[in-house]
Automatic annotation (TrEMBL):
SUPFAM superfamilies: DNA breaking-rejoining enzymes
Record-given protein name: Integrase family protein
Keyword annotations from UniProtKB, A to Z: DNA recombination
Record's keyword annotation contains Transmembrane: no
Superkingdom: Bacteria
GO biological processes: DNA integration; DNA recombination
Organism per entry: Pseudomonas amygdali pv. ulmi
Domain Tyr recombinase: residue ranges: 13-71
GO terms, molecular function: DNA binding
Keyword Secreted: no
Annotated TM spans: none
């Protein structure tokens, strides 16, 4: 019998053989593929109802964890907000300033 553990090990070995680092956040684990797929659909502007269908979820809420912004996307949004603040004010704001000051990005 082929177990899930054996499959995960074989999958990781295959990724390593072709030079891919293995990690859920990278989309290179079996379950990580689902997250990467959900993010790609969301980034492409696909309607949430269709993403739910494509990912075989029972509800729209169940896909939220699969379509959340990753760290790179969140950092890019903070950098863009910091640039808007720099353009609007003479002071200098960094990404860490936004995090420390808890500034709402929608103001």
């Amino acid at each position: 019998m082929y177990t899930l553990t054996q499959y995960n090990k074989a999958h990781a070995a295959a990724c390593e053989r072709i030079g891919l680092p293995v990690g859920k956040a990278l989309g290179t684990t079996p379950h990580g593929h689902r997250h990467a797929y959900g993010r790609r659909l969301s980034n492409a502007g696909i309607d949430k109802a269709l993403i739910r269908r494509f990912m075989h979820h029972a509800s729209l809420e169940s896909q939220d964890v699969y379509t959340q912004a990753n760290t790179r996307e969140a950092l890019a949004a903070l950098e863009a907000a910091a640039q808007l603040l720099r353009d609007k004010h003479t002071g200098t704001f960094s990404t860490s300033d936004l995090l420390l000051l808890d500034i709402e990005l929608n103001d």
